[in-house]
Amino acid sequence: MPSPENFLTYTQWSAWVMLASGIAAGLAFVFKWDFRFRLVGATSFMGVVTVGLFALTLVPLSQTVVPGAAKYALVYDTGAANVVITVPPTVTKAALEATLQQAANNLFSSGRSGQGNTQLLIRARTVIHPEPGVSEPLYLGQIQRSLSQRTDSAMVITLLDKNLARLPQVDDGASAG
Fold it and tell me: In terms of pTM, does the model score above 0.70?
């Protein structure tokens, strides 16, 4: 994945191409070439590309990795203060806690509107099958973090031990049958 330094290099090259296109457009107007308006469009497009590349130099594209976290998928996101993620039914308590922390860091955005809330609520769930042909969503825990601060040291994690106990136990191969 390109780093912000790479995007700065791309921005510089894009700015040079935009400048050259602008000079060509200026010459086209001076000499009344037929394609002068196409050059104006090309220059404008390069301006948009340059600004976009410059924006990518300011915002890192990397994801936070918390050791021990399980893979999760985004199920529901209002773009505001509520998010639901799904984790595998084999998740452990420690992995769930690490996954919630990772999700809280990765899903933070200063563009989220709180709609009256100051906290982002991320809930983790899984799907269990208590009997054949029956699927049941099961909420395992949640994390609350600030909507306004990128680094929130006061995140509150709540794990639902009763629901964690309902998860299928992973057979490690040590038991004899």
Answer: no
